[in-house]
Every structure is written in structure tokens, then in C-alpha cells.
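Try it yourself: sequence plus zinc ion, in.
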Amino acid sequence: MTAQLRVVHGRTGVDVEAARRAVTDLLVALGRDPGSEHLADTPRRVAHAYSELLTPREFDLTTFPNEEGYDELVLARSIPVQSLCEHHLLPFHGVAHVGYLPGERILGLSKLARVVELFARDLQVQERLTKQIADWLRDHLAPKGVGVVIEAEHMCMSLRGVRATGSRTVTSALKGVLREDPRSRQEFFALAGIS
Ligand SMILES: [Zn+2]
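Structure, out:
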């Protein structure tokens, strides 16, 4: 028996029209002329870009019974992450390594990437994003353990301020066996390619 759950998110959607007006105001505040030929369509483009970056695609979460009794780590490596830092509204991007030790149910592998997207398409800080993915998997899959590592470069650090270009921030969230058992934890980090 498979179990399906339509994943909907209670987030308030983006008011694209209001965002377009606000970008026009922002251009004026930045000393630019939104009436100029080059900038005429910029407010609309920016509003749509933010809307896209803040709206995850809905997906059906299909879980399957773990009939074979698979009890080794399932790990998806280098899932692309694109998100927006809530402090600067600038992107941060990188990869997520998401693993779990199955309990009674397993999840379609492609769904791990959709869970990452579900929380990445929001105004975020990397620490919270990492934890939300781990908590969601724990709550929906009841696995024996969950591990999430995100490595990301933050444009607010690369382009301004300290200008730490190329520097990556690494965050992790571990649950259950992966948190408690050093051997499992080590195996997870080794498979994720983190030493
Ligand atoms: Zn920032």
C-alpha cells in the first residue's frame, strides 16, 4: 500500500502587482529613472523573479512500505539548493546532502529534492532551512535517523561586506540514530563527502 499526501504550504503567496509597484519605488529610491527605456520592464521582471524564488512547486509525497526491510542509509548527494537570505534578499546557493535510515516506510528518491525545494523557496537563513528539511523528514517518514548537510555560498557575503568570494557555509542537522550513534554519523558524513 502506498500513502499519498498532497503537500500544500500555508504560506501567503506573492502579490506580484504590489511587488511590481514596490520595485518601481525602489528604483526611484536608488536614484534611477523607472521611466527610462532600459528600466521600463524591470519592475515586472523583478516581481516575477521573486515570486518564482519564493514559490515552491507542489508535489505528491508518495511513501512506500519498506517491504525488503532495507536498513542501510539512503542518501541523495548534491541536491541543488537555491534560496533567498532573509536579511538581504540576496540569493544563497549550493548543495544539500540528505540522508535517512529507513524505518517502516521509504520515499521516492526524487522526492528528497522536492522537500529541499519546499523549504528553500522562501526567505531563509541556512540554519533554519537545514533544520526544517530534517524535521519534515522525521515527521513524515518516521525514519530511524535523518541527516541533512547544506553547503552554500551567500551572495550577501560574496558581493558585499566581507567579500568572501567562494567561501561556503556548512550547516548540518542530525536526528535519531544519526545523531546518537557515532558510527552511523560518521558513515553519513563519509557518504555525503564531508570529512
Ligand atoms: Zn544575507
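One thing you can check immediately is this: The longest helix spans residues 126-141.
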